[in-house]
Amino acid sequence: MSVTKEKKSELVAAFKTSERDNGGSAPSQVAVLTERINNLTEHMKANHKDEHSRRGLLKMVNRRKTLLAYIKKKSVAEYDALIKKLGLRK
After folding, report:
1. pLDDT per position as a tens digit, 38-64
2. What is the distance of C-alpha 69 from the center of its chain?
3. Summary count for the chain: helices (H), strands (E)
4. Model's pTM, two decimal places?
């Protein structure tokens, strides 16, 4: 269910903000969290009584929400580009 090293590396490379970014920037973290949330959402569809995974999913969603709020406060244009690229907020 988790994100593989290869997939995480691809996401970080696609969303990095500078050449030295190894996944610590907010857009990179949001991209990785989005992938993890999507994977866990599929798990929850099949295992709707899994309360422990549900709690983890909610924590990830809230963490992503906090990071997106930070990005929006810093730069609205960057925020708009990121949510469009990730397919969030339809």
Report:
1. 999 999 999 999 999 999 999 999 999
2. 13
3. 4, 0
4. 0.92
